[in-house]
Amino acid sequence: MEEKDLIRKAQKGDSLALSTLLQQNYSFLVKYLMKVTLHPQLAEDLAQETMMKCIEKIQLYNGKSMFSSWLMTIATNLYIDQQRRKKREKNYHDQEQALRKMKWQAGVMNEEWSDVVDALASLQVDIRMPIVLKHYYGYSYEEIGKMMGIAEGTVKSRVSNGLKNLRRELTERE
Fold first, then answer.
1. pLDDT per residue over 1-47, tens digit each?
2. Alpha carbons 165 and 64: distance in angstroms, whole number
3. Which of 4, 8, 27, 102 lies 20 to 30 Å from 63, alpha-carbon distance?
4. Would you kindly state where each structural domain of the chain is located, as residue ranges?
């Protein structure tokens, strides 16, 4: 069954269709959140929270964007909200431990990826997120702006400046 049909059925209350939709998009969403949060457990938690929000708000999906983009927008907003709440509570030790774990996992797969994770971790989340959305997922500046609730020009600026910082960081590591 096509995604459009599943969405239509889910919006009419078909829980099996909704379950299928969520299952089809879950791993994609978790991978996106891992790149944004750099924290595997937080990525899992946010993915589950996103799925719950989707279940509550499936009626609001209007089909103007891909369903996965809609989920990413929800996830992005949940993450931004959480970061605002926890801004003052940031625990450096926990973040470092999670980053070490992720680098170790990445190191097992590919040593270069570990360097990229390190460099991404050096960026603020509001800079890292547009870079991940643009260069890992191929979203346009306009789509990223809508997802993050910022102007397209701001997205371009953040991506450009963030990439300069990444290049500098990766060059220093060589």
1. 799 999 999 999 999 999 999 999 999 999 999 999 999 999 999 99
2. 34
3. 27
4. 1-96, 112-173
Q: Is it true that domain 112-173 has CATH number 3.40.1190.20? A: no
Query: How many CB atoms neighbour CB 136 within 10 A?
Result: 12
pLDDT of residue 90 exceeding 70, the answer is no
pLDDT digits (tens, 9 = 90+) for 99-108: 556 555 555 4
HSE of 29, CA atoms in CB hemisphere, 13 A: 28
Give the CATH number of domain 1-96; options: 1.10.540.10, 1.10.1740.10, 3.40.50.300, 2.60.40.420.
1.10.1740.10
Dihedral angle computed from the Cα positions of residues 158, 144, 35 and 165, in that order, rounded to the nearest 10 degrees: -10
